[in-house]
Amino acid sequence: MLNLFSQARHAARRVAVGAAALALAGTAIPASAQETIKVGVLHSLSGTMAISETTLKDTVLFMVQEQNAAGGVLGKKLEAVVVDPASNWPLFAEKARELIAKEKVAVVFGCWTSVSRKSVLPVFKELNSILFYPVQYEGEESERNVFYTGAAPNQQAIPAVDYLMANEGVKRWVLAGTDYVYPRTTNKILEAYLKSKGVPAEDIMINYTPFGHSDWQTIVADIKKFGSAGKKTAVVSTINGDANVPFYKELGNQGIKATDIPVVAFSVGEEELAGIDTKPLVGHLAAWNYFQSVDTPENKDFIAKWRAYTKNDKRVTNDPMEATVIGFNMWVKAVEKAGTTDPDAVIPALIGVAVPNLSGGFSAMMPNHHITKPVLIGEIKDDGQFDIVEQTPGLIVAEEWSPYLEGSKDLIADWRSPMNCGNFNVKTGKCGGAGK
Amino acid sequence: MSTTQTRQPALLGTSGLVFLGVLVAAAVLVPILNLAISPDSAVHVPTYVVSLLGKYLTYALLALSVDLIWGYVGILSLGQGAFFALGGYAMGMYLMRQIGTRGVYGDPVLPDFMVFLNWKELPWFWYGFDWFPFAALMVLLAPGILALVFGWFAFRSRVTGVYLSIITQAMTFALLLAFFRNDMGFGGNNGLTDFKDILGFNIQSDGTRIVLFVLSALALGLGYLLCRFLVRSHFGKVLVAIRDAETRVRFTGYRAENYKLVAFVASAMLAGIAGALYVPQVGIINPSEFSPANSIEIIVWVAVGGRGTLVGAALGAVLVNYAKTYFTSGMLAPYWLFMLGGLFVAVTLFLPKGIVGTFYEWRARRRERDDIPGESPGELPGEPPLAEPKPAA
Amino acid sequence: MSDIDTLEPRTAEPAPAARKELTEALLYLDAVTVTFDGFRALNALSFTVDPGEMRAIIGPNGAGKTTMMDVITGKTRPDRGDVFFNGGTTDLTKLDETQIATLGIGRKFQKPTVFENHTVIDNLRLALKGQRRALPNIFRRESAAERERIDEIFETIRLTEHKDRLGGALSHGQKQWLEIGMLLAQDPKLLLVDEPVAGMTDAETAQTAELLREINANGHSVVVVEHDMTFVRDLGVRVMCLHEGSVLAEGTLDQVSANERVIEVYLGR
Amino acid sequence: MTFSARLRRLAGGLLLTLFAFCAGPGTEQAMAQGSSAPDISAPLAQLANDNYGDTEAALGALALSGSPAAAGVVAALADGKLVFSTSPRQVYIRGDAGLIDPLTMQPVADAPAVKPVRVNNRIRRAIDAANGALSLVSPDPAKRMEAANAVGRSRDEAALPALDVALAKEADPKVKSAMTLARASIVIGKEGISPAERIAAVDLVAAEGNQEALAILRSVPASAAPEVKQAAAAAIDAIERNLAMWSMAQNVWYGLSLGSVLLLAAIGLAITFGVMGVINMAHGEMVMLGAYTTFVVQELIRTYNPALFDLSLIIAIPLAFVFTGLIGIIIERTVIRFLYGRALETLLATWGISLILQQAIRTLFGPTNREVGAPSWMSGSFEIGQLSITYGRLWIIVFAILVFVALLATLRLTRIGLEMRAVTQNRRMAASMGIRTNWVDAATFGLGSGIAGMAGVALSQIDNVSPNLGQSYIIDSFLVVVFGGVGNLWGTLVGAMSLGVANKLLEPYAGAVLGKIALLVIVILFIQKRPRGLFALKGRSIEA
Fold it and tell me: For the ABC transporter domain, which residue ranges apply (chain C) (predicted)?
């Protein structure tokens, strides 16, 4: 490891001054470095995203402890290296580089927002490492070095809309989101999907708000107005975490009940609901691939261990946690299969790995680096948990390239040989996108 | 550099020489230690450290630009990050256009985020950015023109003190909101990423990183010389005079607003250059660079290093960011905000003139004691008087 | 700068009776009124200053002396009234501070205002008549004539040995002189001097009076506002007493101090 | 069959049954006695399938059965007290003591393992429909009123006969008019209605003048007589114009409400920044601490005395004031007091303090949102004309004004207020008059901080209670104080309200984001026009 400072001491004095500024070396690497496999944790512990990401850091630490208790991997103990990218996107890239180049981690679990993933992407490609990304996202991506264990839009949004159409008879749709890529893309896909189901344009209202929007009076009133046109109306919410609490509080204040205008959200889970009085929200929905209320022995066992680990018998679990757990187990399995932590061996080994998920089935890593998932629809209960009202019968394979978007409808991803491509165009038969 | 120095000996003081010396040493040593030394050697500088250092240097240039207007003119801009980000976006747009068909959709013209959102053609303001000289010009002009327009209004109307600070904050906040909008055509929250080439060189190769690092060092050195030249000139003396007694300057027949405007625009352009060098080294530009908190942080760097000393501003930027890098890893990660916050409080209480300012003061006192004539009193600006607090209601 | 609108339209031309006075006067104030939130700082104030004249203005606190200077130098816009310069050729109410300073009106503040973080010599360099535009000043170099002029001023204000000290390091009296020196460097036609001897020793006061007389003798018109009667007596010039924003009495110091209303104002009823 | 059609049939069925009962003499008695108690074991068994379709069908069957036990089962289902076992497949009602057999109402001896019958929105609506229909003849007028409104909203033609019967019997004039309106709502869209009757219905509905009336009027069928369509079109036109006016008023109300939030957030800053000249970047964190105080108070109340919950905010307000005030005093004594006269350095120090406070809260309470509940008196809304006013927002406006008045009174009328003004105007003079300026400084900063804490109590009702809470208000707060004019409390009031209203008037046209950008640009331009804010202090003293 670099330790310019001590070296420079022997050099000329002038150099020492310069070198002191360059002495970026952190703490010295422990002597046992050779005997452990390092696992990087790249989640914000401060700043705006700490609210969501801190739990995932704890999850990885928990999984590392569990794995070490079970004997580690390839006979070595795992060692978690935690950094704090502080909700700062360039810092994500810097920390990713530090984890891979300086700490020499074998794998990184990290990121929440799309922009943080986009920020670290070139780093993982350049330094050839592995990132497990555990959050539902807009899709439109498949990279060799990234494994996506969260939902693609077809694993969350479309089943939710199907449920509302079939079970609630919804005819009119409000697509409300925060103005960033995930809601934009999800709403584009949903708009195309709804139109393909015969919903006329005047029955779709799309609304975007800035991050952290806190004054929802006007927009909730607009939704109320839109919903009083005589047709059953629902809100599909891709509102980002922070803005949800004031949004739901305003819904409650203006007396919009789930039986009048149900809201189905894709970013509201147990963790977010912990900050809200859910009594006025009973019946509003969320679509995820996991809920804490999933009634399986695996889940009960997981929750018990998790609570024991965190020494908090009220600690909740949520979907991105499950995605982290699945990703972690897949990586362990792939490393055992490959017999090494070398990314070039682990990346191909990961494809086809299947591990049990917490909702009673198996999730498998597909050639597009996304996993198969069941989709669950839950209604909010007054205790902040979800009542699962629908579960897809089988597992759904991720459509990383949405067939409902112009630019991506001809693209597929397959990281197996011989294709080895994240954006293969089935029309032109070439790797490298849609072209023009 | 040595020629400048002989031609104009007054341009550099001892601290300036040390500063430039360290900069030159870094610009020479780091590439050698990175490229010519085996990676196994203990003195090898890994590439990620090179990029990190390059990033610090661009921050130092940014801090320098703040010190020029805050330290010497008394304009506390809480929106300097906006100029930095605009320079960065201009460079980012160039880099985006260089991706060509290598984007995930393979579209030869449109960047990925436009394809993704079903845009059909390139918006007009993206024209020309595929040509480097144009982009380089925009690195200067985009922040420069914004500063010109904003400053022209604000200084003519004699908006000063906290009022000016708050409207610069409002400016960067408005830009933040605007750039977050996906409809703006700048990639929304995701910003611009996934750059491939700069001027035909692979942006991720060690060689390119080294060149960018050296360029950053060069820009910082030249930026320092420029600022130093400006503040030592008659023009610069008027600036300090405006900071200390603006009314007096007006009664002496100077158009204070024009002086402020020139300094403000120069500072914005320096910030723009810093942004343009920053983007290829960190690989992303996103609207959060416009966030008011970022701009406040820049002020904090300058204050830590020593306001009105130029060298101090650069030093403060490097120190605070190094502290950030250091504290956000390892055992300290959960507590780094305590340390950073504590550092700011401690500096304010115990080193009110910042690190370099305090050093100058100590040196001046020692000289006085030893009866050595002062070197350059211009390096020791006092705190400009702030308007007395007003009574309520 | 006041943003109060003019309450009445200003007469386009002065009344014929006043015309002769106007064309001869260097400075001409007629019926100038300034109001701050209902308080009349100046109340129809009228007076003239002739070219080459030195005038002393006295008056109790709040009489409107500083406001008067603010009006002349463009810092405050009058609600009503005329302010002309250079024999009526220039309407000062339409100009800002910088333009007025460039025309040749210099002002010394009540609180000595020098550039504290500049050396004494730099203070004079900044004030010295010459290029005022921003961009050319980046590359400006001092000419030999300018250096000479500065040396001359140093002689006049007796600060030669302090020229490399910081302005802020000077004593109160030295700052007053430096400020007067800066006025001289500007080479104005009219100097407005606000309480130049406040806080000075008796010797310094006498020296200052001498200095101002010297400046006046060199062809500069001077208006001095001062409380110190010894100093005003030393100056030996025409005296004007302001009260509640208008002229209460005018004449020699003896005449003015004999005026019953002045006594009443100063000593109370 | 679509869901809504099913629902409609179910509701219709219920109503028809009811109609039959009501029509025949003595039916109520018959029902009560259950002389020919119908067999409901089949629907009960269906409920035990725990499948939404079956549950819905069973609900319909239960209601049609007329069994006295049915009502109890429906009520139990609504309360989540209806449970089922798989072997034997049977449902029970969960009583206080244990399981109860829904048919016999007797406790079950050896209880099997049970799970609750699941309820979703669809079932909730079915329950509502059943309850609503049953209530049309309820002895309680309030319930009848509610039922009439529910029927009117559903606009279900099948409910017409039942409605007619209920109307004929109705004595309460208010309920009667609600039923008449409900009837009109149904009649408007029904085929085969005479033009005269339909026009009467149009007039009746149009008189409501609200958004719902608009939707009903639009349901006039294409086959209706031309004069009916004309009348409806005219009514729609009038209502739309009327609503546009109301929506303007509504936006102003929203603006005042947003303005009051801005006022609360900014008013503490108007003291620490405006009066004392401290560029207080930790102001937002004081607001946050106030919000966390509310959280702690509510937690304690939940744990020790849940009955006090409605008073939790009232209790939290003084506690938040004292707690954040104390924190403010500690900050002033340990840091700020060394920085008077160096205002810009207070920016640096308070920025550091804000980072420390945020991280401290994150460490103590975790990074996630904490739940702060709304007391019952802050929930719900009422209407004035077409103006919808929520209690929560109303109370926040009232609270903001109270805080403002209290602060003004403190500064104007109390000894400490006088001393504060004296110290900020002329420190040395105040000191020489025997005022302990140190103490006054601490008290002033404490007052500003304490007010920020009280604001936090109010903001906890509408925003996230998280460590980041303060960050989202700090920029707006500074903007408000500066826009209003530093050092002028009235300026802060007017500034907050005008920015709030302007924001909400812009939002419908420009959208939330562009509206906010436009507002920022307006403020920037405004400051050019008035470089010292809205209520600039005039006179010489400013620049002296």
Answer: 27-269
